[in-house]
Structure formats: structure tokens, C-alpha cells
Specification:
Number of domains: 1
Distance between the termini: 41 Å
Number of helices: 3
Low-confidence stretches: none
Structural class: alpha+beta
Radius of gyration: 14 Å
Shape: globular
Largest sheet: 2 strands, antiparallel
Length: about 70
């Protein structure tokens, strides 16, 4: 299993962005910086929920806060 995991390459931003655009989302042309979490407004436009996240808490807390604001 570990050999299989090592062979999986992450998708390039351009490939991912093309899929998102095909689904109707508006994403940046260039890849966001590492640790960025993108959210989407009701029109499908991407916005940065957080940047520079490294730890699990740095990812989760801004997402939870963004969801609280939406509800």
C-alpha cells in the first residue's frame, strides 16, 4: 500500500482549476499559496478563508468561523 501511495501525484493547480471551472466555480488562475483554504460564495466565486495554515487547528478554526458566519 505504501508503494502505491508514493506513486500518486497531486493534481496540478491548472488541472484542478479546470475541473472547478467546468463545475461552474470561479477560481484564481494561479495556485493559491500553501496553507490556503478556499471558500465559495453563493455565486461560486472563490475567496481565501485562511492563508498560511500549517497545523490542523489553523485549517479547521477559520473554516468553522466561516461556517458560523454563514448560518
Amino acid at each position: 500500500m505504501s508503494n502505491l501511495i508514493r506513486k500518486i501525484r497531486p493534481a496540478r493547480w491548472s488541472e484542478f482549476a479546470d475541473l472547478m471551472r467546468a463545475a461552474g466555480y470561479v477560481v484564481p488562475a494561479g495556485a493559491p499559496s500553501p496553507g490556503t483554504v478556499l471558500g465559495f460564495d453563493s455565486a461560486g466565486n472563490a475567496y481565501a478563508v485562511t492563508n498560511g495554515a500549517v497545523t490542523a487547528a489553523q485549517y479547521v478554526q477559520p473554516i468553522a468561523k466561516a461556517l458560523d458566519v454563514m448560518c
